[in-house]
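Our platform keeps sequence and structure together, in a single record for each protein. This encoding replaces a full spatial description with a residue-level series of whole-number codes. We quote a single record here, exactly as it is kept in our systems:
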Amino acid sequence: MSWPNNCCLLILLTICGCCWRWCCCSPSSSGNGSNILMITMGGTKSHKIPFWALGRALIKRGHRITFVNGFQADFHVDGLVEVTPKRLVQYIRNYTDWDLVGARYAGQQPLSIFDAIRYPIEACNSLLSDPATHRLLRRGVRTTTTRTATAKASVTAEEGETDDGEGEEGSHYQLAIVDGAFPECALGIVHSLNVTAFMYINTVAFYTGSLSLAGNPVAYAVTPHVFASWTLPMHIVQRVANCLTHVFADLLHWLCMQRVHHMLRHHLGDAVPHPYVLASEVAFILQNGHFSVTPPSAQLPNVASVACLHCRPPAANLSQLDMELSQFMDAAPAGVIYLSMGSSVRSSRLPAALCQLFVAVFARLPHHHVLWTWAAGNSTTESLPRNVRVRDWLPQQDILGHRRLQLFITHGGLLSQHEAVYHGVPLLMLPVFCDHDVNAAQAVHDGYARRLELAQLTEESLYRAIHDVLHNDSYLRAVRRRRALLHDQLASPLRQAVYWTEYVIRHKGARHLQSPARHMSFVSYYSLDVFGLLSGIILLALQLLRVFVKYLAAIWRAKTKKTV
């Protein structure tokens, strides 16, 4: 065959191969990719982490992401547009200007019930009154297809600020992914945008409100409340307390939702349904739990357990990321201890007495090197023991995955707990607020953690707890077993999350997965009306029998009198 013919054949094969790859092996199985809206109203920055992980994975498959949240963007991700309404950002900053550790350390309630109730109402007002939200609602979508390479990934709204980037007018979102914590305001936006379908990422594993509204069975007897610290099995007193806690919390939530509904109607119009009605139409729930780290539970077909979807292996070579940090960890004679109190705790506001307590204990462990996430002043860091290194921020997963790490001292945040199990690191937990107590209780129950109460913390108790976890092999064996369970899945949590996200898009909301139970009342769902009807029938039958017996008795007495 001549050279021109060979060349033509080669070109033809190349074109065919490219066409086949484009048609059959495209990153997204839903055509050219979809416009996806993500919204989290979470009051701590950790709520963004699962969305970041899922968003990156979806972008790689050709989807376009718009992410609305209350925190300034830390970095640029191609294909991801972060909308950070200024009023929401400022509200969360003011609301979270708290001293959680200080309150818990002093034996006080870190967050009052009133503060917990007012957050979804006030945060919703801040979001819906912001110009950035108004522009989002007017445009219907912010696409990234025509954005320039130099466009910013964060859109922060101020009064009079112009739109950041032009997109296709009239386009719409094929899917919304909403945080299962405080989702009601976001659902109002989703409804107003007429999004085809929405799904949840339940960032708080023990929170069951969104599951229950979707028709998922939430039996109080085997579902410890998120604000409690019980583990399974619960004895009778615990079950009574747990049941009352669920009922009381549901009542408070219902009262709160009346205010939120009023807020939605005020900003979005009277046609907005009640938040409970909106929530019942959720297409799918990505539950941030797994039987390896949370109690096993019954789940409907539109629920998938994706705990640790943000987890990843450590950097292959930590020295390439941070030479000083790598050398410090490698040089530890007896191993490394890592201390971080999470994103919900402002490390700069840790009580001085607590910091001094930590320093005193670490000084008693000279053969262990300690890494501490702490925004301390220069005068403080100069007085630290030589075996302690302090930084404002540390690459947590790279540290947890380091071969020299032996112990993670944490506040009990869910993501930190998941990362510790993923990397096989025992825990010492100092719970602060919200779900920290129930997370710590579960970790202790599973055998891979020790728990200490901040209000009762002393230098000796902390030292003994650290010594126990470091030298008792049962903690390491337990966490390695849990790690094996977490890793033993058909597909990684992130791949499962991506699959189900695209499944919902492909099937236009996947309504065939939704349970009819989501539209049933409490009375109907638990067949109380059936028991009532059957009880009524039985009582009526007994009453009729009573009347019949009395009638027969009367006839018998009448015959007896005639005979006499």
About this structure: The CA atoms of residues 444 and 450 lie 6 Å apart. The two ends are 130 Å apart (CA to CA). The chain has three domains: 30-309+509-514, 318-487, 522-549.
